Amino acid sequence: MITMLAIEVSELVKKYGEVVAVNRISFKVFKGKVFGFLGPNGAGKTTTVEILEGLRQPTSGSVKVLGYNPSRPEEASKLKWKIGILPQDFNALDRLTVKENINLFCALYGNRISAEELIKLVDLGDYKKVRFYKLSGGLKQRVGLAVAMAGDPELVFLDEPTSGLDPRSRRETWKIIEGLKELGKTVFLTTHYMDEAENLSDEITIINKGEIVAHGTPEELIENYGGGKRLIIRGDGEVLNVLLGETGEKPVKVGGEVRVPFNKPSEAVKILEMLSLKGLNYDFEVEKGSIEDVFLKLVGAKITEEGELK
Ligand SMILES: Nc1ncnc2c1ncn2[C@@H]1O[C@H](COP(=O)(O)OP(=O)(O)OP(=O)(O)O)[C@@H](O)[C@H]1O
Ligand SMILES: [Mg+2]
Asked: In this structure, is residue 223 part of a structural domain?
């Protein structure tokens, strides 16, 4: 039977003694899509990923990955040739160069894909001869991505691939992940960065304290929980006072600007028109809801840069 599903998880539970790391979670991952698994530190992301990879045993529930049951050793050993893994704590051989490291992993997989092709895929052409330990965090992660792709897998697990990287390196990694999707690969991406989940994922599942909080496309989540669009208006005290006094909606004053929520474009136009008719000078922009708003609404907290709930 031909299935569109790469992964099917049903009622998965994982306990470490008293700690319930994953509590009856169910979800599906479609082939060729980027699946964002978003949650703060300790949410249960790595536990789930490693069960899917066949590296940890579930306490209960069922898991299917590319048609295999990874909790059965004989199936896990077949599955491992079909998936790629970038673990959260990736490290290559320090004293080997980028090219030597990638060559090594290509050889392990029987040279299904050439090292040169992988180097191009992760844009490491300028660093081929540099020893691994000399690379920056972002470049090390790119070697990790190349290694994950060394078996030319159809499904690849990326466990927090951009954690701790500077904003520029994070964006460069995003481009590489987008490239994987263009090659038709299925990508299981865990992250605590809300912008990363929003920008890269076709579908996002939000996990917190081992439980799934919400699931949908970024657009669906923002539409359902993102709090709609806002008009951000900046101006002098008079502009702000007029807005606070005259708009029917509930404007919120933040610093030197007022945020007015609206549903229809005509509502926003009416407000701007009113300011213009009064001859006031102002500046405006439209802000749409984000996954950050969604998370805040559902969990009642934000995830910090470090992955903590705040
Ligand atoms: N081997 C283990 N033994 C005991 N408890 C564990 C083990 N691995 C994880 N845990 C606990 O299970 C919970 C989920 O951890 P997990 O590593 O899956 O979360 P995560 O979402 O990957 O978090 P992080 O962002 O820190 O990587 C946490 O409370 C963690 O302390
Ligand atoms: Mg983790």
From this structure: no
191 lines ligand 1 (CB under 6 A): no
Does any ligand 1 atom lie closer than 6 A to the CB of residue 227? no
Question: What are the Cα distances from residue 72, in Å, to 28, 58, 82?
Answer: 20, 11, 16
Tens digits of residue pLDDT in 207-218: 999 999 999 999
> Whose alpha carbon is nearest atom 11 of ligand 1?
21
- Local structure of 62: helix, strand or coil: strand
Tokens of 15: 């306990």
Environment class of 88 (CB within 10 Å of its CB; exposed 0-12, middle 13-18, buried 19+): middle
Instruction: Name the average pLDDT for the chain.
Output: 94
Structural domains counted in the chain: 2
Q: What's the domain range around 253?
A: 229-287
Q: Residue 307: left if φ>0, alpha if ψ -120 to 50, beta else—which one?
A: left
Identify the domain boundary among 191, 215, 239.
Answer: 215
> Greater confidence, 287 or 52?
52
Query: What is the average per-residue pLDDT within 141-154?
Result: 97
Q: What Å distances lie between residue 36 and 141, 157, 212, 274, CA to CA? A: 18, 11, 12, 42
Residue 304 belongs to some domain of the structure: no
* Residue in this structure with the two tokens 């006031």, named with its chain if needed: 280
Query: Is 13 part of any domain?
Result: yes
Mean pLDDT of the region 93-112: 97
**Do residue 179 and residue 69 come from a single domain?**
yes
Residues 157 and 266 placed together within one structural domain of the fold = no
What confidence tens digit (pLDDT) does each residue in 151-160 have?
999 999 999 9
Burial class (CB within 10 angstroms; exposed 0-12, middle 13-18, buried 19+) of 226: buried
Residue nearest to ligand 1 atom 8, measured at CA: 47
What is the pTM (predicted TM-score) of this model? Answer: 0.90
Judge whether 294 lies within some domain.
Answer: no
Q: Please determine, for residue 248, whether its predicted confidence score (pLDDT) is greater than 70.
A: no
Q: Whose CA is nearest to atom 1 of ligand 1?
A: 16
